[in-house]
Fold 50S ribosomal protein L6.
Amino acid sequence: MAAKKPEKKHIVAIPAGVNVTYQHGTMTATKGNKTSHKHLATPEVHIKIEGSEVHFAPINTKRKTIAILNALMAHTQNLITGAEKGYFYKLTVVHSHFPMNIAKKENRVEISNFLGEKAPRIAMILGKDTQVEIKGKEITVKGFNKEDVAQTAGNMEIVTREKKKDQRVFQDGIYIVEHGVNA
C-alpha cells in the first residue's frame, strides 16, 4: 500500500509593512502610497487572509484547479512585490536613417517620424500609476502593477514593429532591453 502524499500548504507570506486585503473577489496590496489591486475571484479556489499570510484552498486536486491555484498565488506575490518595491522596464530606441521623435502626452506615447511617416504612431500608457521617462534613446517605464508596466512597454515595442521587412536587416524600432524589480 502506497503512502499518502503529505498535503502541500498553499500559503503566500505577507511581509511586514505591506497591508493585503481581499474583498468581493479583489485582492489589494498597499504599502504607504503604493497600491496595486487585481480581481482574483474563482469558484475553484477559496482565498482567506489570516494574520500575515494569504491562504489558498483548492476545492479538488485536479490538474486544472492546481494550475488556477498556482496562477492566483503568483498574482498575489506580484501584487505584494509591486506594492513593496515596484517594477521597471527599460527600452531602447534604434533607428538607422530616419530619427524618431518620441514624446509623452497625457496617457500615451507618440512616436513620430518612424520610417519618415507623417502620422505619429501611438502607444497607450496603461494604469494611472505607470510612469514613462524618456531620455534620449532610453525609455524607462516604472510602476506598481506588473501587468500595466509590462503592457505599456509592450505597446511601444509592438507599435514600431514592421511585419513585411526582414528583422535581421531592418532593425528600426523600440525594443525592451531590461526588466525587473526596483532595488
Summary: The chain has two domains: 11-84, 87-181.
